[in-house]
User: Which sequence fits this backbone?
């Protein structure tokens, strides 16, 4: 169960040489968290292991981004995404995440591996307006329909720009 943490105005900034690494099972339960992840999340490793990865989800993040992320990795593809996370203290921290499926010897998915690094400030500024609009759509429509509508908004925007999602994210 996600703790009821209120966001603060504090922002944690990753260092250039830091990498946040985690692994999850197929349901998104954390099975591995490196030291840097533990530090930014503000939980102990024991508190993180077995918890859903969304324990660090910031309420400013549209659910549509996570729907796209999950749909992509569950189809066997990797994805890049800018994500605003929230530590146990309520402080926010932005990451550029790369999430890839983990497969066993028979090519059967067994989990997911994510490496996050410090994003460029300009990229964060660009993606924030998109995320605000997606979140507004989700709140206005509500429920699963709102999430689907925010994904459709993103899809239409990308089509308008003649680019795929990864191309868009990596161009910021």
Assistant:
């Amino acid at each position: 169960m996600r703790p009821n943490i209120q966001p603060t105005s504090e922002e944690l900034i990753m260092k250039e040489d830091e990498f946040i690494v985690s692994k999850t099972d197929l349901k998104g339960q954390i099975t591995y968290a490196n030291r840097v992840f533990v530090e930014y999340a503000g939980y102990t490793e024991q508190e993180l292991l077995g918890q859903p990865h969304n324990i660090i989800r910031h309420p400013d993040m549209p659910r549509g981004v996570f729907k796209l992320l999950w749909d992509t990795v569950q189809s066997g593809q990797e994805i890049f995404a800018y994500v605003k996370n929230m530590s146990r203290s309520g402080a926010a921290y932005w990451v550029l995440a790369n999430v890839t499926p983990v497969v066993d010897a028979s090519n059967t998915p067994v989990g997911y591996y994510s490496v996050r690094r410090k994003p460029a400030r300009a990229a964060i500024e660009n993606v924030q307006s998109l995320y605000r609009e997606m979140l507004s759509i989700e709140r206005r429509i509500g429920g699963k329909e709102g999430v689907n509508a925010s994904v459709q908004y993103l899809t239409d925007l990308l089509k308008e720009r003649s680019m795929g999602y990864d191309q868009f994210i990596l161009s910021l």
User: Anything to note?
Assistant: The helical segments are 35-41, 45-48, 63-74, 121-141, 143-160, 165-171.
